[in-house]
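Side project, low priority. Logging it here so it doesn't get lost.
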Amino acid sequence: MNIEQLIDKFIDHILIEKNLSLNTAKAYRNDLSKFKKFIEEKNTNLNKFDSNDVTSFIIFLKRKNYSSTSITRILSGIRNFYKFLIGKGYIKNSFINIESPKIEKKLPEVLTLEEIEKILNLNKISRNHLRNMAILELFYSSGIRVSELCNLKMDDLDLENRFIKVKGKGNRERFCLLNKKAVELIKEYLKERKNKSEYLFLNNRGNKISRQSIWKIVKKYSKISGIEKNVRPHTFRHTFATHLLSEGLDLRIVQELLGHKSISTTEIYTHIDRKRIKEIYKKFHPRA
């Protein structure tokens, strides 16, 4: 079997046996395509790939301006690919024992409360303004991921009790809370919307809204609000978590709301609000 066929088998494996999402599978295929290109350019094969080739591959990626974070993710994906190949008896290579380069963890960028207010209080700037504001308010209200928002269905809504059912990574289900403003905007949007689609947020053609469309909405509204930060859909998720922790919400509850499998993923938000930490220190330390 050639490498393309083995990648196909791996993708089938993570979709069917591992029950990973289509977006995750797409990301794996995209990363493995870079690896495939390198293998072909080097005129080598999966069994011969060694530590020297790993170094060459890292250099290959760096020359294409991939960040250290992206390179580490790509290598992690290749390692999982090799685990699958070895487990199924396709190859005997020991690539999985090769370590990824260490990377410096960066704190996620968040918006201040004032910046959030600027975005969420914008006057009408689009014919889809009501839909767009419902999307932005939902992001900040619930902290959901962009892919989760795109896939929200009408059956996932419980507006009376102010929560939504979300299917996250690994198809794990959780419930996210909504604030009053998010519920109001969703109700207004649904009154205005004439399409009877099963999905909550639709594009102008009546189809499920895409990730790309939401990116454009976030970029447009943050720019018009005068926000100079690089605001992305995930920025709202970071901001949601940071603001809740700043107000004293327990880390475990924030973990549950975000749908993080490990609390270590959530802990990065505890490093962001240094002002809050200093206030607590001054309040409780006897010699502060």
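Brief comment: The longest strand covers residues 163-167.
Revisit when time allows.
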